[in-house]
Amino acid sequence: MMIINTEMSQSEDEEINMAAWILGVKNLSIQPYPLPSLGPHDVKIRIKAVGICGSDVHYYKTMRCANFIANKPMVLGHECAGIIQELGTQVQSLAVGDRVALEPGISCQTCNFCKGGRYNLCRRMKFFGSASTHTHGSLANMVVHPANLCFKLPDNVSLEEGAMIEPLSVGVHACRRANISPDTNVLIIGAGPIGLVVSLAARAFGSPRIVMVDVDNTRLSIAKDLGADETILVSTSIQDMEKEVVQIQNAMRSKIHVSFDCVGYNKTMSTSLNVSTSGGKVCLIGLAQTEMTVPLTPAAAREVDVIGIFRYRNTWPLCIELLRTGKIDIKPLISHRFGFSQKELEEAFETSAQGGNAIKIMFNL
């Protein structure tokens, strides 16, 4: 087993902080993770709940996610919540013992994107568990994080729900970008975790009719249970697209104003462009393919707008309010729970990698 050597030190009288390291393809190990020093505007958080994201699974299976390659050991995890253990000298907004959800990306705050409020596009973003800047993640006993990225949870919102705010934020950001309202009929292609949170967010934003499409009946059944008005099983063959477009339009019973592609393949994006009404919108959330061949010119001639979605910005307060008021119930998405041992770590990632009936896998630390 590879033993991690770190540059940071930890005093002998401190609790040894353990974390889940990815060492190689399907090679995970719980090993010590010394924390950086606590800055004046930072807090130390004891992590209590961490969800597995699709990006974590990509690193587990291939040591890469899109164009980001993990060429050295890295701590995984970014969907997290915990309890404040220690405050930096200048922190006044939080108190020891507060239960918080963590926004995992630290932007530079100085570039034009950050200054313009679109900090999710910051090119110097340090994001938990990402090889883009080789920033260690939060699947650990404790982490140090800026206080302004830690959001206090109401008493009726659990730590598991707090960890689920990160994926929910993708859905909320997408619905904001698409201007979802009570006048918007929504199609969602892909009934995985992101498709499901988009569905929950779209309903909370007032969408009167939601149709969900997938290649897996099990996931469509879950989508139906979570409130989708109609679900449609489709194939992976692009040869079937023309008849499936008609089937989807008939299921909506009205115009499709916004299509969310939560997959990102030639077929799913082509379907979204073809099925959306003239003057409608297509939001590309899934990024499975770097390059696609799609019928863009006919869609442009019908003024179908294509909207890109990358992570989120300024979503934690709204997500917390949606959970607090019960407008969104995120709990049913948690399909499996594991503790934080070497055996359970490996089982959890294998379960997530195999798909099947696994929606969101949660670690309880």
Protein described:
The chain is of the alpha/beta class. It has 2 domains: 16-151 and 329-362, Quinone Oxidoreductase, Chain A, domain 1 (Alpha-Beta Complex); 170-306, Rossmann fold (3-Layer(aba) Sandwich). The chain contains 10 helices and 20 strands. The strands form 5 sheets. Strands 3, 7, 8, 11, 12, 19 and 20 form a 7-stranded mixed beta sheet that branches. Helix 8 links the parallel strand 17 and strand 18. The protein is globular, with a radius of gyration of 21 Å. The two termini are 23 Å apart. 47% of the residues are buried. Residues 7-13 have low confidence and may be disordered. InterPro entries: ADH-like_C, ADH-like_N, ADH_Zn_CS, ER, GroES-like_sf, NAD(P)-bd_dom_sf, SDH-like. Keywords: Metal-binding, NAD, Oxidoreductase, Zinc. GO terms for molecular function: oxidoreductase activity, acting on the CH-OH group of donors, NAD or NADP as acceptor; zinc ion binding. Its cofactor is Zn(2+). This is Enoyl reductase (ER) domain-containing protein.
Topology overview:
Layout (H helix, E strand, L loop, with lengths): L17 E7 L2 E6 L9 E10 L2 H9 L1 E2 L2 E2 L4 E2 L3 E9 L11 E4 L2 E2 L5 H4 L10 E2 L14 E5 L3 E3 L6 H20 L6 E5 L3 H12 L4 E6 L2 H9 L4 E4 L7 H12 L5 E4 L4 H10 L5 E4 L11 H6 L3 E4 L7 H9 L9 E5 L3 H13 L5 E5 L1
Parallel strand pairs: 13-14, 13-16, 14-15, 16-17, 17-18, 19-20
Antiparallel strand pairs: 1-2, 1-6, 3-7, 3-11, 3-20, 4-5, 7-8, 8-12, 9-10
